[in-house]
Design goal:
Radius of gyration: 23 Å
Number of helices: 17
Strand order of the largest sheet: 2-1-3-7-9
Shape: globular
Strand content: 5-15%
Structural class: alpha/beta
Helix content: 25-40%
CATH topology of the largest domain: Rossmann fold
CATH superfamily of the largest domain: NADH:ubiquinone oxidoreductase-like, 20kDa subunit
Largest sheet: 5 strands, parallel
CATH class of the largest domain: Alpha Beta
CATH architecture of the largest domain: 3-Layer(aba) Sandwich
Oligomer: single chain
Length: about 400
């Protein structure tokens, strides 16, 4: 990846000219971005013109508690790529894996960039941030991850939380979370770091095209695209994996794989009964895929694990059908209401919400009302009885 092919004072247009990239090719790239970001057709001229005139921004990429999978996802995409073009356009001034410098020289580059481009640089955060025991579980150059993030966030123009670890805590935050692994949004909301414009790009790893498209939108329009209530771009996270799955027609025909390598598996039937979390997972991996758009986990015969959703690792039951953990209405008749309510919550709600219901932004006495209304699209498959909603209501109020 060449991160030094364009001067800071140059524009994207001058870069295209020097590298003999035709206007036709450039417009095809812009059309791809516009389509991926669900922009209206009349936005294409504005996108292409603003992107052509945009100047090279500085980017600091911080890697904390992570596996380097997010970087691998981006750099192992096929060539020539939109990702290559975008990363030739930005100035990637600090990145543990990709930078040539090490030790004091590497930290000097970060500090120089922060000072020289204060208030202008983009900050990409990859990995969760441990805050337990003073953050001693992960340090860089003698500083905790939290200290470095706090330093870098102050002068950042905007922040991209890349991957489920940075966006939601991910695997490092799985129970019992011994390191106190925390996501970027939580640190902002708790006042531990400066509050900045934030976009979450969850996934383990996220789609390369989602990263480059969001970067292109920010470079062209100086803002992120439309986001959902979890700060995810609606263009990529607005629909479930299930809704856009290549196996969806088998789901409609009720043709399911019962066990790995049975007849249904060999014929590519729906993986719902093997615990596929596609119906409760919002992502576009079944559309855009990886490895030159060759495949995704579901295409390869493995059920979706729901990795782009908060707390996915603690939800359990990777190979249990969602039907097996759905409301049965039969258990707990001799239990206290709060205990039964807890079972209802853990069997149904944790697949999309925090395992800790006290973190709900909605008031507890409003939740059952919303569920009864049927106005929340993603909850319409839940068939709670009035008694169960009353029990769930009591449990949530007791937690609040």
């Amino acid at each position: 990846m060449d991160i030094n092919t364009m001067s800071r004072s140059g524009t994207f247009g001058s870069y295209l000219t020097r590298n003999d990239i035709s206007r036709r090719s450039f417009l095809k790239i812009c059309s791809t971005f516009a389509s991926l970001l669900a922009l209206p057709s009349d936005a294409l001229p504005a996108l292409s013109e603003k992107l052509r005139q945009a100047t090279r921004p500085s980017v600091i990429w911080l890697s904390f508690q992570e596996c380097t999978g997010c970087t691998e996802s981006l750099t192992r995409s096929h060539a020539p790529t939109i990702e290559d073009l975008i990363f030739n356009f930005i100035s990637l001034d600090y990145h543990h894996t990709l930078q040539a410098a090490a030790g004091e020289a590497a930290e000097a580059a970060r500090l120089t960039t922060m000072k020289q481009f204060f208030g202008q640089y983009l900050l990409i955060v990859d990995g969760s941030i441990p805050i337990g025991n003073g953050g001693v579980y992960s340090t860089i150059a003698g500083k905790t991850n939290l200290e470095i993030l706090k330093e870098c966030t102050v002068g950042a123009k905007a922040v991209i939380a890349l991957g489920s670890c940075a966006a939601f805590g991910g695997l490092p935050a799985a129970s019992p979370n011994p390191t106190g692994a925390t996501d970027v949004a939580t640190l902002m909301n708790n006042g531990l770091i400066a509050k900045k414009t934030l976009v979450n790009l969850p996934g383990c790893p996220p789609l390369p095209i989602a990263i480059s498209s969001v970067l292109a939108h920010f470079l062209a329009f100086d803002r992120f695209p439309a986001l959902d209530d979890l700060n995810r771009p609606l263009s990529f996270y607005g629909n479930t994996v299930h809704e856009r799955c290549s196996r969806y027609h088998f789901y409609q025909q009720e043709k399911f794989v019962e066990r790995f390598d049975d007849e249904g598996a060999q014929k590519g039937w729906c993986l719902y009964k093997l615990g596929c979390k596609g119906p409760t997972t919002y992502n576009a991996c079944s559309v855009y895929k990886w490895n030159q758009q060759t495949s995704s986990p579901i295409d390869s015969g493995h059920p979706c694990l729901g990795c782009s959703e908060p707390g996915f690792w603690d939800l359990g039951g990777f190979y249990r059908s969602l039907d097996d953990v759905a409301v049965s209405g039969q258990r707990g008749n001799n239990k206290a209401d709060t205990e039964e309510g807890q079972l209802l919550y853990e069997d149904n709600c944790v697949y999309c919400h925090s395992i800790d219901p006290s973190k709900f932004a909605t008031e507890a006495d409003k939740i059952s009302e919303l569920l009864r209304s049927g106005n929340i699209r993603s909850h319409r498959r839940l068939e709670f009885t009035d008694d169960q909603l009353n029990i769930l209501d009591k449990y949530l109020k007791s937690i609040k």
